[in-house]
Design brief:
The chain has 248 residues and is an alpha/beta fold. 46% of the residues lie in helices and 17% in strands. The chain contains nine helices and seven strands. The strands form two sheets. The protein has a five-stranded parallel β-sheet with strand order 5-4-1-6-7, sandwiched between helices. Strands 2-3 form a two-stranded antiparallel ribbon. Helix 2 packs antiparallel against helix 3, helix 4 packs parallel to helix 9 and helix 7 packs across helix 8.
Length: 248
Amino acid sequence: MIYLHKLLPLLVSPIVLVIIVMAYAVIKPSRKAVIFAILLLYISSTPIVGERLFRSLELNQIRLQPQDVEAAEATVVLSGMLKSVQGKNGNVVEWAGGVDRFFGGVELYESGKTPLLIFTGGLLPWQTNQEPEGEILRRFAIRMGVPADALRVSESVQNTQQESVAIKKLLGQNVKNIILVTSAFHMPRAQGLFEQAGFDVTPYPVDFGVVVRDVKPMDFLPDAGALAMTNAAVREWLGRVYYWIIHN
């Protein structure tokens, strides 16, 4: 199932649509198809489009500080911030996108907002011979001074819905109030899933992807980073639509 969750959104991502249209233009020569593919690629890869699509995911959220939120029973940090790279003696772990999730969780604990700091055990099927992400983050947190008895890690999970179920299983029925830490673009969907699992959620969005600024001429030129933002935005919006459909 996780493979479907990862692969199906690709079918409507801009880059795959461009490939499909170009393939059609090769099989059945069509100038209109070529022009459409070029325009789609251009539009999808401009910052004026990519940043605005991504900003639509983060709309009305602000970067909070620990003093801005009320205390809760636990802080839950979602996975998605580590990558495995080749080292001299095998694979080693480095920070990837979303690292603010970890530091956001630690700052909440250090500020006394919750007695528990919980990481989810993110582990995808193709990550063979790897530890769940939460176990690695737990060690990082201990190095930063968080007591071991204040840390928890969920069972292995593959997506946000599984994270919400695993955390509910870990905390049981007695813990209701949590502070949820994840990337701003991901927060609305994650918050909805954790509320459906029975939690009262205080969102603590981090890892904002778009800096609010004035438009500049370079925003109308193709950029690989903007294309990545467009793809990520399409994927997240599809995820939100999917979970809205299955829960309504």
